[in-house]
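Notes from hallway chat w/ T.B., transcribed later so I don't forget. T.B. wanted the structure written out for a chain they're using in a teaching module, and asked if we could keep both sequence and C-alpha coordinates in one place. Agreed to drop them here.
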Amino acid sequence: MDFGDGATRVELTAAREGAGPAAVELQLAGSVTRIEVPAAGGRHAWATVRADLAAPAKGVHELRIVLRGALRSAEAAFG
Protein backbone atom coordinates (compact mmCIF):
# COMPACT_ATOMS: atom_id res chain seq x y z
CA MET A 1 0.00 0.00 0.00
CA ASP A 2 1.28 3.48 -0.80
CA PHE A 3 1.08 5.81 2.21
CA GLY A 4 2.49 8.71 0.20
CA ASP A 5 3.97 11.46 2.36
CA GLY A 6 3.02 9.58 5.51
CA ALA A 7 0.32 8.30 7.83
CA THR A 8 0.21 8.37 11.62
CA ARG A 9 -3.45 7.46 12.30
CA VAL A 10 -6.04 4.95 11.16
CA GLU A 11 -9.83 5.04 11.19
CA LEU A 12 -11.66 1.69 10.89
CA THR A 13 -15.29 0.80 10.39
CA ALA A 14 -16.07 -2.53 12.05
CA ALA A 15 -18.96 -4.51 13.52
CA ARG A 16 -18.59 -6.91 16.41
CA GLU A 17 -20.65 -10.07 15.98
CA GLY A 18 -20.61 -11.65 19.43
CA ALA A 19 -19.48 -11.64 23.01
CA GLY A 20 -15.84 -11.82 24.00
CA PRO A 21 -12.82 -9.82 22.95
CA ALA A 22 -12.53 -8.50 19.40
CA ALA A 23 -9.74 -6.47 17.84
CA VAL A 24 -8.18 -5.53 14.54
CA GLU A 25 -4.41 -5.81 14.22
CA LEU A 26 -2.56 -3.82 11.58
CA GLN A 27 0.85 -5.26 10.77
CA LEU A 28 2.76 -2.52 9.03
CA ALA A 29 6.41 -1.51 8.64
CA GLY A 30 7.65 -3.96 11.28
CA SER A 31 5.15 -2.86 13.92
CA VAL A 32 1.72 -3.97 15.11
CA THR A 33 -1.15 -1.63 15.95
CA ARG A 34 -3.96 -3.33 17.89
CA ILE A 35 -7.38 -1.67 17.96
CA GLU A 36 -10.09 -3.01 20.26
CA VAL A 37 -13.55 -3.04 18.68
CA PRO A 38 -16.40 -2.27 21.11
CA ALA A 39 -19.69 -4.16 21.09
CA ALA A 40 -22.10 -2.09 19.02
CA GLY A 41 -25.21 -4.25 18.82
CA GLY A 42 -24.64 -6.96 16.23
CA ARG A 43 -23.03 -7.92 12.96
CA HIS A 44 -24.58 -4.99 11.08
CA ALA A 45 -24.13 -2.35 13.79
CA TRP A 46 -21.05 -0.59 12.43
CA ALA A 47 -18.78 1.42 14.71
CA THR A 48 -15.93 3.74 13.79
CA VAL A 49 -12.75 3.32 15.83
CA ARG A 50 -9.63 5.46 15.60
CA ALA A 51 -6.05 4.91 16.74
CA ASP A 52 -2.52 6.17 16.30
CA LEU A 53 -0.31 3.80 14.33
CA ALA A 54 2.41 2.12 16.39
CA ALA A 55 4.93 3.59 13.93
CA PRO A 56 4.38 6.19 11.20
CA ALA A 57 4.25 4.83 7.64
CA LYS A 58 5.62 6.68 4.63
CA GLY A 59 5.85 5.45 1.06
CA VAL A 60 5.05 1.89 -0.04
CA HIS A 61 4.65 -0.88 2.58
CA GLU A 62 3.05 -4.28 2.88
CA LEU A 63 -0.04 -4.05 5.12
CA ARG A 64 -1.68 -7.02 6.80
CA ILE A 65 -5.04 -6.62 8.49
CA VAL A 66 -5.80 -9.39 11.00
CA LEU A 67 -9.26 -9.74 12.57
CA ARG A 68 -9.18 -11.22 16.07
CA GLY A 69 -12.51 -12.44 17.42
CA ALA A 70 -16.03 -12.40 16.00
CA LEU A 71 -16.08 -9.19 13.99
CA ARG A 72 -16.37 -7.76 10.50
CA SER A 73 -14.45 -4.91 8.94
CA ALA A 74 -15.76 -2.65 6.18
CA GLU A 75 -13.03 -0.08 5.57
CA ALA A 76 -9.82 1.47 6.80
CA ALA A 77 -8.63 5.03 6.16
CA PHE A 78 -5.15 6.31 6.93
CA GLY A 79 -4.02 9.85 7.57
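Follow-up for T.B.: The two ends are 13 Å apart (CA to CA). Might be a good example for the class.
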